[in-house]
TrEMBL record:
CDD domains: CBM6-CBM35-CBM36_like
The keyword Aminoacyl-tRNA synthetase appears for this protein: no
Lineage: Bacteria, Pseudomonadati, Pseudomonadota, Gammaproteobacteria, Cellvibrionales
Regions of compositional bias (Pro residues) in chain numbering: 340-368, 508-530
Record-linked PROSITE patterns: CBM6, GH26
Any one Gene Ontology molecular-function term assigned to this protein's record: hydrolase activity, hydrolyzing O-glycosyl compounds
Residue ranges constituting the CBM6 domain according to the UniProt record: 373-491, 532-650
Segments traversing the membrane: none
Protein name, as recorded: Carbohydrate-binding protein
Matches recorded under SUPFAM superfamilies: (Trans)glycosidases, Galactose-binding domain-like
InterPro entries to which the protein is assigned, alphabetical: CBM6, Galactose-bd-like_sf, GH, GH26_dom
Length: 650
């Protein structure tokens, strides 16, 4: 955001923020609650939706619609006629509606997706937003889960996070100001975790967090990636795990906005049903509260070969499996199962500024306060001896260490525009680290000791002008002090705060570097990178679990009878880690539960090894583990028996 554009009254800005927060607090919700999942059927064709009802005997809680934002309606597939059908024939439905920025920016007269986003944030597309508001208002029997942009990302389409956040918030603010109450707002990034954090519009603007879960997301191969099952490992992509847990930790309801079996898994009952089993496991493991399954023969509509016939009625064996697993009486909620949201008190009306843009060829942008984008340091490039390390207390479970000798650096590319940096760090020293922007010296960031290299983190702030898509580098130069970097936050700030320079309220002067010793051999600013292996037979056992002997096990023994409710293996005084690897044997496929310091961390999904002894496999589970924690593998209701050889904490 350019400072010269900030002309809007602070009173107006405060009113907008107040209105947004108040509306969020009083909004009705479609969330069915923990342990229940709305079942929606896609994709965009009325006939296929009706065919699902005929074949299964089930009426979904709602449908899915798609629209190009600049068209001002949901025009794809059966279009508005499908929405009118849902409104008339299925009152009380909850329909997921996609408002796409990425598919056709040319339809709005823009050369690329980011130009359209910036214009939307500036108010140039308020007429299109008003068209959608009119649709919502004229369909009061339908609740809309509105995906404002969907599958947003920087990797595949080069979308700018700041531009997206500003456009997303503009859409939300305009809809809330209109007074319509049948819309809930969905944030739907791709599964890449760095983008999940980078594009997040903020809790006051997000009612639901969504991901897409196709065959590759549950570790099945498809036509494009024939070896994906071995590359992914387990039964769920790690970025899906991490992203859904991220949303769960923040109390954001979870939604699978798009899901379907892909070719060639759809060509057999076994492959199709395996996908459905794994999809169901994702729902239950992360308490997903809405699921949209695309029950469609994609071949009729020109999609690539990965997307074929995903209709559950394709095989009798799959149709029966669907009705047993996803049918009536299960956790999945169909139309009539879902209670109508009870009305909540209307908020005290807040004066709403006129959203009508000045009829000028160049609209004045509405400023967005303090847009903050976090980038994990481990996603950057390291050089000069710097390298990553794992630490459960770090923001993303990892960071960059060995910024301790001249030339050691971490570089972040294509960063968002900002006028302030906030660096999360750990160090036993106080001093400074050097900063470069696009290769040019940008000064130093001063910091104080945190008392340790891991486990204890603080932040240091620096006011500096960073252009969009710049390369930012933290580099150790002569006179600097060693620092472990957790993350960097890029802040686009409309206030006029003084230059912090990492020293809080102290003056921003750089301390005399002469007494700062060069952190040569000691201390080493990084924990051991090697995983810590613990034999299961050395742990504490309870609830019937006991050791067994097997020459093929790592230490000649393992732990068995993890097979009844309450049976458990407990590892104490575990080092700070960000993931667990379990070597196991089991004649079954299923899941086992994990607790850290007595807090449930979810389930580890595993596949059968074919036997209880002799044949072993490994499975990984990502979760933050603090220093000296107690970690338990325990058998809970619905779990599957597993023999455990050893565990590695990484």
């Amino acid at each position: 955001m350019k400072k010269g554009l900030i002309n809007t009254s602070k009173t107006l800005l405060a009113a907008l923020i107040c209105s947004a927060v108040t509306q969020a607090s009083f909004a009705q919700t479609s969330n069915p609650g923990s342990g229940k999942t709305l079942l929606l059927i896609g994709q965009i064709y009325q006939e296929e939706y009706q065919a699902f009802i005929r074949e299964t005997g089930l009426t979904p809680a709602g449908a899915s619609l798609y629209g190009t934002f600049y068209q001002g309606e949901f025009e794809q597939g059966s279009g508005m006629g499908f929405l009118n059908y849902m409104e008339t024939n299925h009152p009380g439905n909850v329909t997921i509606a996609a408002m796409s920025f990425k598919d056709n920016p040319g339809g709005g007269g823009y050369g690329d997706v980011n130009a359209g986003l910036r214009a939307t944030a500036a108010g140039a597309e308020d007429n299109d937003i008003q068209s959608y508001i009119n649709i919502f208002r004229s369909h009061p029997n339908t609740r809309f889960l509105l995906r404002i942009g969907y599958e947003v990302n920087s990797i595949y389409i080069g979308m700018d996070a700041n531009a997206y956040i500003a456009a997303y918030r503009r859409v939300v603010d305009q809809i809330r100001a209109s007074g319509v109450t049948n819309v809930e707002f969905v944030y739907h990034p791709v599964k890449n975790f760095s983008d999940v954090e980078r594009f997040y519009p903020g809790r006051n603007y997000v009612d639901w967090f969504a991901l897409s879960v196709f065959s590759t997301e549950v570790c099945q191969s498809n036509v494009s990636f024939p070896n994906w099952s071995s590359q992914c490992g387990g039964t769920i992509d790690r970025d899906i795990q991490r992203s859904f847990q991220w949303a769960r930790d923040r109390g954001i309801p979870r939604l699978i906005a798009e899901s379907a079996v892909q070719a060639p898994n759809n060509n057999s009952v076994g492959g199709f049903n395996e996908y459905l089993d794994r999809l169901h496991s994702v729902v239950t493991n992360y308490d997903v509260q809405a699921l949209a399954y695309i029950n469609s023969d994609w071949r009729n509509f020109g999609f690539d070969p990965n997307f074929a016939d995903s209709r559950v009625q394709k095989f009798n064996g799959t149709l029966s499996h669907w009705n047993n697993l996803f049918g009536s009486g299960s956790r999945y909620q169909y139309l009539g199962d879902t209670p109508t949201p009870s009305p909540t008190p209307s908020p005290t009306p807040t004066p709403t500024p006129s959203p009508t843009p000045t009829p000028s060829p160049t609209p004045t942008p509405t400023p967005v306060p303090d847009v903050t984008v976090r980038v994990e340091s481990e996603s950057g490039s390291t050089s000069g001896g710097a390298r990553t390390y794992n630490d459960g207390a770090a923001s993303g479970g990892a960071g960059v260490a060995y910024l301790s000798s001249p030339g050691a650096s971490v570089s972040l590319t294509n960063v968002p525009e900002a006028d302030r940096l906030r660096v999360g760090y750990a160090s036993t020293m106080s001093g400074r680290i050097s900063l470069r922007v696009n290769g040019s010296d940008a000064g130093n960031i001063n910091f104080s000791s945190t008392g340790g290299w891991v486990g204890q983190y603080s932040t240091a702030t620096k006011r500096v002008s960073i252009p969009e898509n710049a390369t930012l580098e933290l580099v150790f130069e002569s006179g600097d002090a060693a620092m472990n970097v957790d993350y960097v936050e890029f802040i686009d700030d409309i206030s006029n705060n003084a230059d912090d320079d990492g020293s809080g309220s102290q003056p921003p002067s750089i301390p005399n570097p002469s007494p700062t010793p060069s952190p040569t051999p000691s201390p080493t600013p990084m924990p051991p990178a090697e995983p810590i292996k613990v034999e299961s037979e050395s742990a504490s056992l309870s609830g019937g679990a006991r050791t067994y002997r097997d020459g093929q096990a790592s230490g000649g023994s393992g732990v068995a009878y993890l097979s009844s409710t309450g049976s458990a293996i407990s590892f104490t005084n575990v080092k700070a880690s960000s993931s667990i690897m379990i070597r196991y044997a089991s004649a079954f496929s299923g899941k086992i539960s994990v607790r850290v310091n007595s807090v449930d961390r979810g389930d580890v999904m595993f596949s059968s090894t074919g036997n209880w002894v002799s044949q072993y496999a490994t499975v990984n589970f990502d979760t933050a583990i603090p220093e000296n924690a107690t970690v338990e593998l325990f058998f809970d209701n619905g779990d599957t028996a597993m023999n455990v050889d050893y565990v590695e904490f990484k």
